[in-house]
Every structure is written in structure tokens, then in C-alpha cells.
Specification:
Blueprint: E1 8-9, H1 10-17, H2 21-29, E2 36-37, E3 43-45, H3 47-61, H4 66-73, H5 84-111
Antiparallel strand pairs: 1-3, 2-3
Length: 152
Amino acid sequence: MTVKRKAFLIGKVAARTGIAISAIRHYEMEGLIQSTRDAAGRRVFEPADIRRISFIIITQKLGFTLKEIRAELDLRPQGRTPTKRDWERISRSFKDKIDERITTLQRLRETLTGCMGCGCLSLKKCALYNAGDKASQWGAGPRYVMGNRASD
């Protein structure tokens, strides 16, 4: 006797995940998810793909690139529902990156109305005035938001 696995057509996956069918096709093209075809040639997805797509949506909102997401998902078995242990490993792997982003966002929130050490020298009055573009010694970009301090 053959056991039939529950499968979802692409429209149902889109409705369940809240993303466009074109996004699902894009994720498939990027190798993040994988469909099979039914007898009519329609894309069908496993229930595990809904969880994978949800993970992709969340991690993209956290600022991770599809390349970073793919690298993590490539370590997980395709076609099998990820276990609790799989998701714990994924969480640990992203934790440090998420903590780093939280720190950066907090710094940005604190310095957004003042100088960010960007080197522009265009503000007449700046709480963290970057006199002589001192911040450039640490590299390009908004150095104070990236972690350097005027007192360094």
C-alpha cells in the first residue's frame, strides 16, 4: 500500500505564507525550496516547505541575504520536515549575527540625530563632531554607528 504525503499547490503555499507566487518561484529558483510536479504538471510542495518559507521571510526581515539563508538551509535536509533540533541549530547559528544587528540598530537609534562619523563634515553643529574626519582612521562609512567612538 502506498502512503500519500500531504502536498500543497503553489497557490495554497502562497496563501498560507502570505507571499506572492512569484516570490515562491524565486525561492525555488534560488534553491531555497524544492517542488515536485503532480500528474498535471503543477508545482506541489511539502508541508516542510511552508516552514522553510516562513524561516526565509523572518530572516529576510532581520536583514539576512538569500545567500546567507541558503547557506544555512543547505545544511538541512531538503524534503524532510526540519526537527526541533534542526531549528535550534539554525537559531544558534544566527544568534550572534542577530545580536550584532541589534547592537548596531541601538547605536543608530542613539546617534541618528547627531553625527555618525561619516566624514561629511556638513553639519554646522554636531554632538559628535568629526573634526578633521578623525573617524576615517577606522575605515570608510558611518564609523560611530559601526561601533567606533569619538573618544577612541
